[in-house]
Amino acid sequence: MNLKSKIMMLTVLPLLGVTAVITYLGLTYARSLTHQELAVYEQRMVETRKQALKDHVEIAMSALRPILDDTSLSDVEAQYRVREILTQLNYSEDGYFFAYTQEGVNLVHPTQPDFVDQNLLDFQDREGNYLIQGLLEAANSGGGFHRYIWEKPPLMQQEDKMSYVVLIERWNWMMGTGLYFDDIYQDLKTTQSKINQNITNSLFTVLFILGFTVLLVVLLGLFINLHEHRLADARLKSLIKRFIRMQISERRQFSRELHDGINQLLVSSKFRVELVTNKLKKGVQVETIEQDLVEAERVIDQTIQEVRLISHNLRPTLLDDLGLQAALKGLLEQFSERTNIFTEYEATSNLDKLPEEVEITLYRVTQECLSNIEKHAQATHVSLKISIKKGHLQFECYDDGYGFNLGESQKGIGLINMRERLELVEGVFELHSIMGEGTKVTASIPVNLAAVDKKP
């Protein structure tokens, strides 16, 4: 896996992880909140229904009150009328009233008349609840609620039910009415379904946003990678062009030096040798021939010096024989002897362990700096400092000369050569100059410190 893929993974994976954690926590909180809200909702609905049961019983008692307070009616007549009224009273679709004696004998049951006059004191629902005994106990305690399972009309299916009962004190009858919880459960189920649907929709929305975000990150990464590739290709092409141009320039200079220097000297040597040959054939005096040979020898020595100079310019022998430290010191010493300018040199101790391409780059940049100082600066002091800090080699060459206007001199061939040489080794070139105060050339080149330390 390459570096760009790793960077992409480091971007996408934390995003997915954080989204997953936030989504999980959100869903967990939403479910917990849903259960709490539904519990509160159910409790409120039950309380509302309880109050409704009380209201229904009070209305029934209001209907029975004239009969119960009429002392002119006998108990038999009054009981008959009460039972008739309770039988006929109903509300909603399944609301009815019932009545029992203290012995558990059913007196009124509109939906199941077969129970009338039967003793149901020991009747149990499917969960073993003695519901009539529970209702009597609630009524005898001053009125109350009791929960049990009973058949709901009209389908007569067993459902969870709650009743509210009171005493008809004239005969100690237990009278009451009840409600079924199936509609409450249905409302809760519907509400739960809607909430779950909302949670699901929210989850899909989060997943959609996440997918869109990841896709956007990937596309943006691909776009940036493509853009970087194009920039890198353009930079590489530019560097290749500069390198080729530098090679052509150096080869042209080398060709010119060979043609104008070495070639002319060799032609002169050949002329002297031919002259000596002709004189020997003609029998010219030996003294004259010796003088021509001495001149030929001088020209050949000059040719040898020219060849050495060209060879040194192509690849300084000091770099191979003694290393970069000695080569730079030699450059400064020659410069100081030639110009009478005081030079100062300070460098790190492991310069001779640098890669070959960095060594030749530093040597050529130093050469170019000294050449520019000699030609233009009229300086009295030159300082050269080289150090390695934080994985970068820092180069600094300072002179106290006249300085120059940066805007007018940035296109000089020497400065361009230095900049291009440094770019070929991924270096950065900077030039600072102030008129009347001098010039400072700085460069920074990335180096592998581990490789430098291990190099023999």
From TrEMBL:
Q: Which residues form the signal peptide?
A: none
**Which chemical reaction does it catalyze?**
ATP + protein L-histidine = ADP + protein N-phospho-L-histidine
Record gene name: nreB
Q: What is this protein called?
A: histidine kinase
GO molecular-function terms, A-Z: ATP binding; phosphorelay sensor kinase activity; protein dimerization activity
Q: Which PANTHER family match?
A: NITRATE/NITRITE SENSOR PROTEIN NARX-RELATED, NITRATE_NITRITE SENSOR PROTEIN NARQ
Q: Could you state one GO cellular component term attached to this entry?
A: plasma membrane
Origin organism is Marinomonas gallaica
Q: What's its membrane topology? A: Multi-pass membrane protein
The membrane spanning regions, by residue number, are 203-226
Q: Which Pfam families match?
A: HATPase_c (PF02518), HisKA_3 (PF07730), sCache_2 (PF17200)
Please state the Enzyme Commission number of this protein.
2.7.13.3
Q: Give the keywords, sorted.
A: ATP-binding, Cell membrane, Kinase, Membrane, Nucleotide-binding, Phosphoprotein, Transferase, Transmembrane, Transmembrane helix, Two-component regulatory system
